[in-house]
Amino acid sequence: MSKIPATLFDKVWDSHAVRKIEDGPDVLFIDRHFIHEVTSPVAFLGLENRGLSVMFPEKTFATADHNTPTINQHLPVQDPLSANQLKALESNTAKYGISHWGLGNPRNGIVHVVGPENGITLPGMTIVCGDSHTSTHGAFGAIAFGIGTSEVEMVLSSQCIMQQKPKKMRITVTGSTGKGITPKDVTLYIISQLTAAGATGYFVEYAGEVFEKMSMEGRMTVCNMSIEMGARGGIIAPDETTFAYIKGREKAPQGAAWDNALAYWKTLKTEEGATFDKEYTFNAADIEPMITYGTNPGMGMGITQRIPVAQEAGGSAASYEKSLQYMGFQEQEPMLGKKVDYVFIGSCTNGRIEDFRAFASVVKGRKKAEGVTAWIVPGSHIVEQQIREEGILDILTAAGFELRQPGCSACLAMNDDKVPAGKYAVSTSNRNFEGRQGPGSRTMLASPLVAAAAAVTGVVTDPRELI
Amino acid sequence: MAYDKFTVLKSTAVPMPIENVDTDQIIPARFLKATERKGFGDNLFRDWRYNADGSPKNDFVLNNPIYSGKILVGGKNFGSGSSREHAAWAIYDYGFRCVVSSFFADIFKNNALNIGILPVQVSPEFLHKIFTAIEADPKAELVVDLPAQTITISATGESESFDINSYKKHNMTNGYDDIDYLQAMKEDIKSFAAKSMY
So which domain of life are we looking at (chain A) (predicted)? Predict the structure, then answer.
């Protein structure tokens, strides 16, 4: 009997299926469970109410990120509700013997940044977290996706999750990207082509030259944004770039275990002739620096273009108009030259060292524009340390910027970093939903280069003119 | 969490014909600071429902007394964005037991099913018929029959069937959840874990 060629996704998924229920979900074994302060307390409460325990505490890792302040982290957290959630995470993890990198811990940072940088995220794993951007970890050839709190309780109590196997999509980007084009532009371009719901029901494998040449940081940015087109997750086959990134990280396998792991990881690729439920191919040469003009991540365009009219944008005209009205923009307007009040560099999408290097490359020798408030927030303490060691902090300081402390910050504005109502922010985060960065705030998503260009000019600017 | 059994729901419905309703609108992030699962209904659609000073926005459907019921009818791609289960809790806590749309985001759909809200996916044509029926008569009733997997507009008798896998259907109609199921297969999970490379 000849074997049917398998996709990377099938290989990882099927090897983790403890049971397949007929006309139901699969029971999927989870290798790594990340938890944070916002979506875990009710799950722990659920365990207690049922009298259950944590089945494999050593497979769960906790960090505090969503609610944490980005200044004065050595002081007690001011907001009593945030402090309460942080305390709950601390006591729950202590009670069940789960490792916890709380505020002040040198390993603390955003969950999707600290997992990879400490070697916790590895190829071929199944990884879940009560956060939709868990898709980030797919950059390593892992099946990683966000879950709800009931599912967090499920994984804590049984290390398994019940999931219908998604359909498979492959997105290939051929050729090479031009000057000033970052992984963020690649992903915003794909989402603008597919819409915010274009990959719902699918798990996406990214393939082609552009991803093969991309750094791990870039691959994480792309996989992170998979959820913004509705995909359950994104995955990229591990290769030498992946292995080089992992090797030597604190929790990565060492010695003989490394050799064994590596031999397995090398088998993790889609076989020739394997089929997908849907395929798309794009040409990298068509990608410009991107910016969003609306209230979902699918409403993006090349920075030199004009805002599309409703008919071109697809979907219902009423919803489209509501979105533009919220933003204070009109059809056919250019985005170049639009005033910017806030700039945010950070988040699990673009809070890694590569992003700060890109930002600094534009800022170097220039000054922060007057009237712009910039929040520069590393994804972790390790990133913060790199920023200092590489001289990036000096460039930022000379330009009039301040570096803040790690956390999710203005990406979802659960802490004090909120963009005021009516103000415009260019943000390297992942969501431009209404009020995402504070009630009434208006967000334009973009790459660190576009954000840097806005930070030094005060308006939406094509970064290619500054590099 | 155990929840009430869901079999046949006959109710008026609240129409919200907006596409891409994301979970940040259903419950904004600043309301996710609780450590217990209660009271979220008060902040359901907070920024669409209330002005900054706390007064209700008259043009928002939840503030319009002619609409009420246990069924929320939304536009395409309902529940996109964040994985926050709080969005489903807020909908449930407010009093909805069923959300109808032509398309749901995956995580929202799972979250809803896990806490006892039935997401009913209908064709764009049938969704349009529902909105038209409610527009014609805000007291128009919908009948959601989970055992038969049908949704019917009472006034016109028009009906459409919807999909749900038999495992989830069994859970919903009996008020069981996945944790009950997983607890019963712990030995299998242990032996699986023993062979796991990680």
Answer: Bacteria
Chains A–B, number of C-beta pairs less than 8 Å apart? 210
Distance from C-alpha of B128 to C-alpha of A142, rounded to nearest angstrom: 40
Size of chain B in residues: 198
b/e code B37-57 from CB counts within 10 Å (16+ = b) = beebeebbbbbbbbeeeeeee
Distance CA(B54)–CA(B69), nearest Å, equals 24
With an 8 Å Cβ cutoff, are B24 and A431 in contact?
A: yes
**Could you read off the pLDDT of A405-425 as tens digits, one per residue?**
999 999 999 999 999 999 999
How many Cβ atoms from other residues are within 10 Å of residue A93's Cβ?
A: 23
- The reply to whether A160 sits in an annotated binding site is no
Q: Is the pLDDT of residue A363 over 80?
A: yes
In the numeric block, the tokens 């990207």 are attached to A177
- The size of chain A, in residues, is 467
With 0-12 / 13-18 / 19 or more C-beta atoms within 10 angstroms meaning exposed / middle / buried, residue A372 is buried
- Has A348 been labeled as part of a binding site? yes
Q: What is the pLDDT of residue B2?
A: 61
- B106: pLDDT strictly greater than 60: yes
Does the pLDDT at position A320 exceed 90? yes
Sign of CA dihedral A237, A243, A246, A251: positive
In chain B, count of helices (H) and strands (E)? 8, 7
- Quote the DSSP letter at residue B54: S
